[in-house]
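Internal tracking record. Fields below are filled automatically when a chain is submitted to the structure queue. Please do not edit lines marked as system-generated. If the sequence contains nonstandard residues, flag them in the REMARKS field before resubmitting.
Queue: standard
Priority: normal
Entity type: single polypeptide chain
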Amino acid sequence: MNTDDINLAYKVRHALNENLDALSVSTTERLAAARALALSRKKADAPRQALPAKRPLFDIKALFSGPALARIAVAAPMLALVIGMGGVYQYEQQQRLAAMAEIDAAVLADELPLTAYLDHGFNAYVESQQRQQ
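SYSTEM-GENERATED OUTPUT FOLLOWS
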């Protein structure tokens, strides 16, 4: 039943209950007989289904079941790949920063000849000097 049907049923019941005391005895008897007949024809209530038992918050058996293992088998390599790529990126960034820091330190310490500042291949020169050391 939708809400409109339920509201109509409540309104009809309310209207019938307002004039209940004014009904004649014969009408009351006919209504009682109709009610008894309706109750005899009423279908038996369906048995209620038992609620499922509460599952524990963390179920080890469910974790190692077939579908869960399939999800883990897909997720674990993906997670390892993402972590590995992140590690490689961090390593490369550290290497790049270290090289730039060495160049800055050499410039600030005036360990480079003046011709290095005028050369367009300045970075190549600094890298070749680092390789020689």
